[in-house]
Write a structure and sequence with these properties.
Layout: H1 25-29, H2 32-40, E1 45-50, E2 58-61, H3 63-69, H4 73-76, H5 91-102, E3 107-114, E4 120-131, E5 137-146, H6 148-191, H7 195-209, E6 212-219, E7 224-232, E8 241-242, H8 252-263, E9 267-270, E10 281-289, E11 292-301, H9 310-335, E12 338-347, H10 350-358, E13 361-368, E14 375-381, H11 388-398, E15 400-406, E16 414-419, H12 423-430, E17 434-441, E18 444-451, H13 454-467, E19 471-480, H14 486-496, H15 499-510, H16 522-529, H17 533-552
Antiparallel strand pairs: 1-2, 1-5, 3-4, 4-5, 6-7, 6-11, 7-8, 9-10, 10-11, 12-18, 12-19, 13-14, 13-17, 14-16, 15-16, 17-18
Helix pairs in contact: 6-7, 6-9, 10-11, 12-13, 15-16, 15-17, 16-17
Length: 554
């Protein structure tokens, strides 16, 4: 191995010279013994190499050199100092010392040396020439100091600075990327005129930054997620995702989105090597506003893309999208374009017990409020010929008040009943819900409820299942409805009337026949129409029934 010395290489040799005596002013004034003692006991390593001999062997090393390197004077003297070098020693500082010796100059370098035990250490070496009376370099003195701790501290600081700079650059890139996706998603939300537009634009904006994304709606009745729109690379087709079974099917995407719905927090999952697609990680981002969970966004990316602060940004994106959905929903509610309709089933409800006692099913026909409490009208199926007393007895046993039995002798009797108010009525008032139908059979009462806003509908459904015993969410859906103006409604009813029915109705209205007491009589109107009195009344009753049907069956 090549060893430079005073750690220079073997190729640098100086010609032998006649021994000379080193003289200086100090040698005449300072005691030689004091000089020797000072060098021997110095706290730094001191070496002296004979520059007049080939390979510049050491002729002196002090005790500090031995403590630092482990090499005794008996080993070191007579050898070039390059024995301290090894595999980790770099050429650059060795070359710097070589050049200084060739130019008869002093220099200081830091290089990696080895102790006698084989331990690597950092050595700060200063070499300086000593000249004889003729001005020729006769010796090279070396000062050596172990600076390993300082070099390690410097390296640690440099590494830390490099990590900080790397993190700074990464954060700058992250912020630039996220700033773009936040701006794009926000613009997509504000510009969307429908849920479909919003979904398409949101996933497109996210896919421009990440590997891909899809957005799905959440059905609380079935506890399932239905993907609606996708963009970019999203792996294999996910299909409908059941919250209950997501943990058991082994797919990272399903676990992430199901956990996001359940916890209402962004969930990160690595995508296994056996799962298709270019992405290596997926984030489930819940979409919720107030008490309503609208759905979830699945965001696909490379693992390094999901950095520490990204979860917070994705959470904010989810909130932005949910707010946009809520705003669209509010606009549609104000325009009367849609409602949320869901069914709650109650087992053991008094109405169910009432129907079971009569061995029939009940279909809601309307609600009236002319009593102290609201009454429900039910058409019965299978109770024909049942007398009123039996119906009242069945109601009393079930906890149902029977107010009247209409058309008892027909195939479809109508029963007017009321039941004691439960927690459902309180929830309906709190969340502005409206009962639009009841269906009772097999001891199960199913109530259909409409709510104008989805946030309120989801809260009502959730609270009902938590607060009301035996309540079960059977179905949940958004239902489109076309708002009809009063003029349009009147035109629709009028179109259902025959000419004779319309004529009878308008004559009765304008002549005061509909007032009490009558301002005219049926005979006069019938004469004006050229029909009999009974025919007039038939036309009038038919017109009135069509109006009532249009109002109450809506």
């Amino acid at each position: 191995m090549t060893r430079p010395g005073l750690q220079t290489d073997a190729g640098t040799e100086r010609p032998a010279r006649a021994s000379g005596t080193v003289t200086s002013a100090s040698t005449e004034t300072v005691d030689e013994a004091l000089k020797t003692r000072s060098m021997d006991e110095a706290p730094v390593g001191i070496t002296v190499a004979d520059a007049t001999q080939p390979d510049m062997p050491l002729i002196y090393v002090n005790a500090a050199f031995e403590r630092m390197t482990g090499y005794s004077p008996s080993y070191a003297v007579g050898r070039n100092c390059r024995f301290l070098q090894g595999e980790a020693t770099r050429e650059k500082p060795v070359g710097q010392m070589r050049a200084a010796i060739e130019d008869d100059e002093a220099t200081t370098v830091e290089l990696r040396n080895y102790r006698r035990s084989g331990e690597l250490f950092w050595n700060e070496v200063t070499i300086a020439p000593l000249r004889d009376d003729a001005g020729e370099v006769a010796y090279y003195v070396g000062f050596q100091q172990d600076v390993t701790r300082r070099k390690r501290a410097e390296q640690a600081a440099a590494n830390r600075a490099a990590r900080i700079e790397h993190e700074r650059v990464a954060q700058a890139r992250l912020l630039e990327r996220l700033d773009g996706v936040v701006a794009d998603v926000t613009e997509a939300v504000t510009r969307a005129s429908s849920r479909e537009d919003l979904r398409q634009e949101v996933v497109r904006s996210i896919a421009d930054t990440y590997t891909g994304a899809w957005i799905g709606t959440y059905d609380p009745a079935t506890e399932a997620i239905e993907p609606r729109a996708a963009a970019g690379e999203v792996g294999p087709e996910t299909g409908r995702i059941s919250i209950a079974t997501a943990d058991s099917d082994g797919q990272s995407v399903k676990r992430a989105v199901a956990a996001a719905i359940d916890s209402r927090r962004v969930q990160l999952e690595p995508i296994g090597p056996d799962e298709e697609g270019e992405a290596s990680a997926v984030a489930g981002v819940p979409l919720y506003f107030g008490g309503a969970v609208y759905g979830v966004i699945a965001v696909y990316a490379q693992t390094e893309a999901f950095r520490r602060h990204e979860r917070d940004v994705l959470t904010a994106l989810g909130r932005t999208v949910a707010i946009g959905i809520n705003a669209l929903e509010s606009q549609r509610t104000l325009r009367g374009e849609g409602v949320v309709e869901f069914e709650l089933a109650f087992r053991g409800h008094p109405l169910g017990s009432f129907a079971e006692a009569l061995s029939c099913s009940l279909r809601h026909a309307g609600t009236v409020g002319d009593r102290d409490e609201r009454s429900l009208l039910f058409e019965t199926d299978g109770a024909a010929g049942v007398d009123a007393e039996r119906i009242r007895a069945a109601g009393e046993a079930a906890g149902v008040t029977v107010h009247a039995v209409l058309a008892a002798e027909t195939d479809v009797p109508v029963i007017e009943v009321s039941v004691e108010e439960t927690g459902l009525e309180e929830l309906l008032r709190e969340y502005s819900g409206e009962v639009c139908g009841w269906a009772i059979e097999e001891n199960v009462a199913v109530v259909t409820i409409e709510v104008g806003r989805e946030a309120l509908a989801r809260s009502l459904a959730t609270d009902a299942m938590e607060q009301l015993p035996d309540a079960d969410l059977r179905s949940y859906c958004r239902r489109e409805q076309t708002r009809q103006t009063p003029r349009g409604f009147a035109a629709e009813i009028e179109s259902q009337l025959t000419e004779r029915q319309r004529a009878a109705l308008i004559r009765a209205y304008t002549s005061g026949y509909l007032e009490w007491p009558h301002e005219t009589n049926g005979e006069e109107i019938a004469d004006s129409m050229g029909v009999t009195r009974s025919t007039f009344h038939q036309h009038l009753r038919a017109a009135q029934r069509k109006i009532a049907t249009a109002i109450f069956e809506r």
